[in-house]
Amino acid sequence: MHLIGSLASPFVHRCLIAARAKGHDLPVSPPPGGSMQSAEFQAVSPTGRIPVLALDDGSHICESAAIVAYLDETLDGPALLPAAPAARAHLREIETIAIGEVAAGLRPVMVHRIFRVSQNEPRVAAGVEQAEKGAAALARLMADAALPGETISLADAALTPFTTLLTIIADQPEIADLLARHGFLSAYLERALRNPLLARTNGEMKEGFAAIRARIAAAAAAG
């Protein structure tokens, strides 16, 4: 069993954290065919996105939410959600908003500013607004939450990669402003980095993004 994706991807790291927290270290391989646009990758990813979990029987699971749930249910190791229904629901609230609002809002920033696929400032502005609303909601939900706890949760698997991403792209003025307005995000990441497993995600993502930005700069200089 292995993940298809990139160590720069926060969605890949969402899955890696879930597996590592249960005591399993999944290998990561690049998309078959050399890119996400290849026919080979499109054949195993209905959405055309990473990550994809390749199972030993030759089948595949796409989308990080489905993958982390599968890993939590099938791998040996500590459960990634508490047993009490109310506590489970609270962490799922945090997880859902981190992915569905903050991460979704950052996507156009990544596409149009960082990766420079195209230029679409109205979409960037709308994305930042969505991320801002998500951060405000998380501030309320996390006011009394002891995250990260002694046991890493699925909420941590969502929060750590995306707070890391915010710091990586904080050279964008709107993202720097968001972090300044929502200091709890930086405080969360500071606590998370005390855990070697979560610190590993932070380091791997930074290294992966540095390589991507170097390639983008080299292509711009050559073109």
The gyration radius over C-alpha positions equals 17 Å
* CATH fold node name of the largest domain: Glutathione S-transferase Yfyf (Class Pi), Chain A, domain 2
Mean pLDDT: 95
State the helix count. Answer: 9
Low-confidence stretches: none
Portion in beta strands: under 5%
Q: Main beta sheet, described?
A: 4 strands, mixed
Note down, in words, how this protein is organized.
Helix content is 63%, strand content 5%. The longest helix has 30 residues, at 85-114. The protein has 2 domains: 2-74, Glutaredoxin (3-Layer(aba) Sandwich); 85-222, Glutathione S-transferase Yfyf (Class Pi), Chain A, domain 2. The chain is mainly α. Strand 1, helix 1 and strand 2 (28-29) form a beta-alpha-beta unit. The chain contains 9 helices and 4 strands, in the order βαβαββααααααα. Helix 1 (10-21) packs antiparallel against helix 6 (154-168) and helix 6 (154-168) crosses helix 8. Strands 2-1-3-4 form a 4-stranded mixed beta sheet, with helices on one face.
Report a brief summary of the structure.
This protein has 223 residues and is mainly α. The protein contains nine helices and four strands.
Question: How would you summarize the topology of this molecule?
Answer:
Blueprint: E1 2-4, H1 10-21, E2 28-29, H2 39-44, E3 52-54, E4 60-62, H3 64-74, H4 85-114, H5 121-141, H6 154-168, H7 173-181, H8 183-192, H9 196-222
Parallel strand pairs: 1-2
Antiparallel strand pairs: 1-3, 3-4
Task: Spell out the key features of this protein.
mainly alpha, 223 residues, Glutathione S-transferase Yfyf (Class Pi), Chain A, domain 2, Glutaredoxin, 4-stranded mixed beta sheet, 2 domains, globular
